[in-house]
Specification:
The complex is a heterodimer. By secondary structure, chain A is mostly helical. Chain A has helices at about 10-15, 20-45, 65-70, 70-105, 110-115, 120, 125-135, 140-150, 160-190, 195-200, 205-235, 240-245, 255-265, 270-305, 305-310. Chain A has a single domain, classed as MetI-like fold, CATH 1.10.3720. In chain A, helix 9 crosses helix 11 (about 205-235) and helix 13 (about 255-265) runs antiparallel to helix 14. Chain A is flat, with a radius of gyration of 26 Å. Chain B folds into two domains: about 30-165 and about 345-410, D-Maltodextrin-Binding Protein, domain 2, CATH 3.40.190; about 170-340 and about 415-460, D-Maltodextrin-Binding Protein, domain 2 (3-Layer(aba) Sandwich), CATH 3.40.190.10. Classes of the chains: A mainly alpha, B alpha/beta.
């Protein structure tokens, strides 16, 4: 067959409809550009202006960002956001794993109970914020009543700076532990039972079984849980807004509450956009760290499980 | 032949549909007014009266979109920034007026299209000036208006008319005070006349087993702690700022104000007459504390009193009484100096409305003597009219109205300039920290003065020469 031979019918059709995959992608691309990329780029532009209520959107360069870097409220909000994220996500993952390990044993009633565990995750954070606010209240709340019984003195959860932050972590943990539980339970289903049988024959302790068999299989779902929960918790707004409004003083202010304050209370849209972009940068940094960790961890998991042994 | 018949039938069908459509259009109202309203108890009554009287009379449909207080401010700012015609009328609070006017968001009413029209059915002078001037005119200096110098603002532009009128008044449990022996010569419960008396009565009630002798909303959110502390500050002879010089430094942190804040914080930190959790309380929590028989007395908005008389929502029906707020006795004159927190909302036409004349027709109907009286006659409305010719009738409706209208002569208000939101946020933060003991009153007010002054100095709205 010579090099100049005519293309086959298949090749000709392929040439003719080369645009077709792009046409299929187009609607999704239009939606992505219209709803995500354009607003993101537009808000970046807005963050470089002095746009506000009744004010012209004059270009101010990086002044809005510089102002936040000098503002103690911003650093306080950043610190609170990171404290809530680290503690809430850490406790959620630990509790989620414990619950999943417990529920893996098919004891009677666990199936119904596991359904109940998922309920907090399905509720609106606004509703949760309202009823926990009342539960923590020392005049009306059941939780404050119990802590008063236990400690012998009135505990004002939401008006003491460290306790108010702890209260927000408790409520976030209560709502999102089921998410870690769900992912961990799914991860546990992937562990081949033969591995546990082999480990029993080898008289491996429970801790060794967990560390050498269970944990490697859970590493990926757990990292996914950490990734999703970190992204979500860094943006925490509803709970804080309802439960404390950022108070007492500014003790529980988070980056999203700060953005809301500038955007909707002061109507300084340029500055609110700048805070929002700082949140985007923070989330992306955290995600990059976690993804690189996931990459390494994926390779380690592959080595320590089946594929590793095969080599 | 068949085709012609089919064509004829089709034409007839189209004609019938068009005629039906035209008929429906003829019955449709001329305009549909959308009102950005506060969810105060009077709003549903206003909606009912509009549906029953205004719409049948004029053909103009009216929808009140009832929102929470914070939401109305946020939505109105969005309306102004997007120049949206979604709302024709807005109910706004007196403090927001400067922001809305500076952003050209409200229609000026003292023009030939509205109040200055020969056909106008209402006049600005129909309303009590103590309420109408601060609420409706801009720019004004509240301290001058409340000192009775209304004439200085005769030619000041008008943007709104009084929609809801009131002040914070003293709510007290008459039954508890009576049992504790706080009675007048006729044997009726005697409310505190001064703030020190308020504290001693609250302490006595707490000792007698009342869970909390008093309440306060000292929350960080909204304007809660300021609205409870400022009347004490003003009654003690202090002030918020120097409105002529745009100066907060040396005014809000004056020795009188430090003393007043110490007095207020002691309610929580020293005397324990209010719940510690009240540092996170707003109207909702104060209402629950009253209604659930948990606290005996405090400042509150007259509007909430109506729901306390509802058996489904309250355990204290028939037990609550009302008076003007206490004050401090002036050492030199021996007279009691009182101050009440002004809390009124106005109604205005948005600058971007497409139905301005219909909106004006509605406002004239709403503000008329006939409609205001109808709202007053519905006990669920908890309404206080600012119409001068209904003053005595309004007072006679219930003791809350009487106390609220008498407080009008003691009223003081926040800043109403365009920097209001930022100024409020600073004061809320610092007062809240002092209330829970995280800062001393002096340090809190010094920090507030420093931050307030920064905002005032940097403001593009600062008048020349201030």
């Amino acid at each position: 067959m010579s090099a100049a031979a005519p293309p086959s019918a298949m090749q000709a059709a392929h040439q003719r409809y080369r645009w077709f995959p792009y046409a299929l992608l187009l609607p999704a691309l239009v939606v992505l550009v219209a709803l995500t990329i354009f607003p993101l780029v537009f808000s970046l532009g807005v963050s470089l202006t002095g746009y506000g209520l009744g004010r012209a959107a004059g270009f101010v360069g990086p002044a809005n960002y510089a102002q936040f870097l000098r503002d103690p409220s911003f650093w306080l909000a950043l610190r609170n956001t990171l404290v809530i994220t680290v503690f809430a996500v850490g406790i959620e993952i630990a509790l989620g794993v414990c619950l999943a390990l417990l529920f893996r044993e098919s004891l009677p009633g666990f199936r119904a109970l596991s359904l109940l565990i998922f309920i907090p995750m399905m509720l609106s954070p606004l509703v949760i914020g309202f009823f926990w606010k009342f539960m923590f209240d020392s005049t009306f709340g059941v939780l404050a009543y119990v802590t008063t019984l236990l400690t012998g003195r009135t505990v004002s959860w939401l008006t003491s700076p460290p306790l108010a932050l702890a209260a927000i972590i408790i409520v976030d943990t209560w709502q999102w532990t089921p998410f870690a539980f769900l992912l961990t339970l799914a991860g546990l289903q992937t562990v081949p039972p033969q591995l546990y049988e082999a480990a029993s024959l080898e008289r491996a302790s429970a801790w060794m079984r967990f560390r050498r068999i269970t944990l490697p299989y859970l590493r990926f779902p757990l990292l996914l849980a950490v990734l999703f929960r970190t992204i979500d918790t860094v943006r925490i707004f509803d709970l804080v807004y309802i439960m404390t409004g950022g108070g007492p003083g500014d003790a529980t202010i988070t980056l999203s509450v700060l953005a809301y304050r500038y955007g909707f209370q002061f109507y300084e849209v340029g500055r609110a956009a700048a805070v929002s972009w700082l949140i985007v940068v923070l989330i992306n940094l955290l995600v990059m760290v976690l993804l690189s960790f996931m990459g390494k961890s994926g390779a380690a998991t592959a080595r320590s499980t089946g594929s590793g042994r095969a080599r | 032949m068949r085709t012609r018949k089919a064509f004829f039938a089709l034409a007839l069908g189209i004609a019938v549909v068009v005629a039906a459509g035209c008929g429906r259009r003829a019955q449709q109202p001329q305009a549909h007014l959308r009102i950005l309203a506060l969810n105060w108890p009077q709003a549903p009554v206003e909606q009912r009266l509009a549906d029953e009287i205004f719409t049948p009379r004029t053909g103009i449909k009216v929808t009140l979109e009832m929102n929470t207080y914070d939401n109305v401010e946020v939505k109105m700012k969005q309306v102004i920034n997007s120049r949206s015609s979604d709302y024709d009328i807005v109910h706004y609070d007196s403090q927001w007026l400067g922001q809305f006017v500076a952003a050209n968001g409200l229609e000026r009413l003292d023009t030939p299209d509205y109040l200055d029209s020969p056909d106008a059915e209402i006049s600005f002078d129909d309303f009590l000036p103590e309420y109408a001037v601060v609420m409706g005119k801009y720019p004004t200096d509240a301290s001058e208006v409340f000192a009775g110098r209304f004439d200085r603002y005769r030619d000041t532009p008008i943007y709104g008319l009084p929609w809801a009128t009131g002040c914070q008044i003293m709510f007290y449990r008459a039954d508890l005070l009576k049992q504790a022996g706080f009675v007048d010569e006729q044997g009726n419960a005697k409310p505190p006349e001064t703030w020190p008396e308020f504290v001693s009565i609250a302490k006595a009630l707490t000792k007698r087993g009342v869970r909390y002798g008093a309440w306060t909303h000292a929350g960080r959110q909204g304007d809660y702690i300021t609205q409870d502390f400022f009347p004490i500050m003003w009654a003690n002879g202090g002030d918020l700022w120097d409105s002529k010089a745009w100066r907060a430094q040396g005014v809000i942190n004056s020795p009188q104000n430090v003393e007043a804040l110490q007095f207020y914080c002691d309610w929580n930190l020293k005397h324990h007459i209010v719940p510690a959790e009240s540092a996170n309380w707003g109207n909702e929590e104060v209402f629950n504390a009253c209604a659930q028989d948990q606290a005996a007395m405090g400042q509150f908005w007259a509007t909430f009193g109506a729901a306390l008389e509802d058996h489904d929502r309250s355990k204290v029906v028939g037990k609550m009484a009302y008076a003007v707020v206490p004050g401090f006795r002036d050492g030199r004159t021996g007279k009691i100096r009182r101050a009440a927190m002004y809390g009124c909302q106005a109604t205005a036409i948005t600058a971007f409305s497409k139905h301005k004349q219909a909106a004006w027709a509605y406002i004239q109907w709403l503000m008329s003597r006939e409609t205001q009286k109808a709202i007053l006659d519905d006990p669920t409305s908890a309404f206080v009219s600012a119409r001068e010719d209904l003053l005595e009738y309004t007072k006679s409706r219930n003791p809350r109205n009487r106390a609220a209208l008498e407080s009008g002569f003691l009223a003081h208000d926040f800043w109403n300039n365009p920097e209001y939101s930022k100024l409020l946020d600073i004061v809320q933060r610092e007062l809240n920290l002092a209330f829970i003991g995280q800062k001393t009153p002096k340090r809190a007010l010094d920090d507030a003065a420093r931050d307030l002054q920064q905002v005032l100095d940097a403001s593009p709205f600062r008048p020349k020469g201030a």
